[in-house]
Amino acid sequence: MRILLTNDDGVDSEGLLALRTSLSPTHETVVVAPDRNWSVSGHTRTMDRPLRIAEVKLRDGSPAYSTDGTPSDCVALAALGFLDYLPDLVISGINQGNNLGDDITYSGTVAAAMEGVISGIPSIAVSMNTTPEWPVELAAAFVARLVEQVNERGLAKDILLNVNVPNLPHDQIRGVQITRLGKRVYNDELIVRTDPRGRKYYWMGGNAVTDHLEEGTDVAAVEENYISITPIHMDLTNHRLLDTLRSWDLRF
Ligand code: MN
């Protein structure tokens, strides 16, 4: 397959290199990735300035393109003609940190995969926590297995697979679960302080997320040491509410 690799942690991330290393023996891979970290940037596209693309080398010496745009820009650039072909698959990652449940609405990693789907290319987003150590080759090896299946069985071009790999040694991962999106509680709080010039500043932060460990969700699967794969489509319509809303008295 011809696979476009990108990420939101920047072209120098080990996660991107691990994907390249594990996929390039059997597939034609091309890296188009941002030149800096765009984590938690969501589905940002650059419309107010031109974009530049530089030829760079990954740490193993393999060629890559780096752009001063966002992860979604990278995919759009490639799909709109920077590459002279439309890739068969977009893979975004391997992200430094899980993207579970509502995280996917913040994630630049998942947004790049969404941009793939919008461009008519089936896509995969891959994420894994980084601590205490980051056995990212393990996640990359699983992606190679998944791509083998995509190649064999096909994946509709309006689908992205959101993959989260638990940060564990190989023998502690219990297998793969196909999941739906779960719920996370962010426990954010607003801290207001005053700077030395007497002006207020605001810091949004707070405690670590707490997860709803509901069976069948991505959040629960990773918590229970399974690799989670969630099929995602871009239709956010709440179909159950269509008829209810139609019954409202909305004469105008
Ligand atoms: Mn990231």
Tell me the strand percentage band: 25-35%
N-to-C series of helices and strands: EHEEEHEHEHEEEEEEHEH
Distance between the termini: 53 Å
Structural class from helices and strands?
alpha/beta
- What form results from the Cα inertia axes? globular
Largest β-sheet summary: 9 strands, mixed
Helix share, percent: 25-40%
Radius of gyration: 19 Å
What is the averaged pLDDT score?
96
Low-confidence stretches: none
Structure description:
The protein has 252 residues and is α/β, with parallel strands linked by helices. The protein has helices at 14-23, 71-82, 108-118, 136-153, 218-223, 239-246; strands spanning 2-6, 28-34, 53-57, 63-67, 89-96, 123-128, 160-165, 176-178, 184-185, 188-194, 200-206, 210-211, 227-232. Strands 3-4-2-1-5-6-7-13-8 form a 9-stranded mixed beta sheet, with helices on both faces. Strands 9-12 form a two-stranded antiparallel ribbon. Helix 4 (136-153) links the parallel strand 6 (123-128) and strand 7. The N and C termini lie far apart (53 Å). Bound molecules: manganese (II) ion (MN). The site of manganese (II) ion has 6 residues, from strand 5.
Index terms:
alpha/beta, 27% strand, two-stranded antiparallel sheet, 26% helix, 252 residues, binds manganese (II) ion, nine-stranded mixed beta sheet
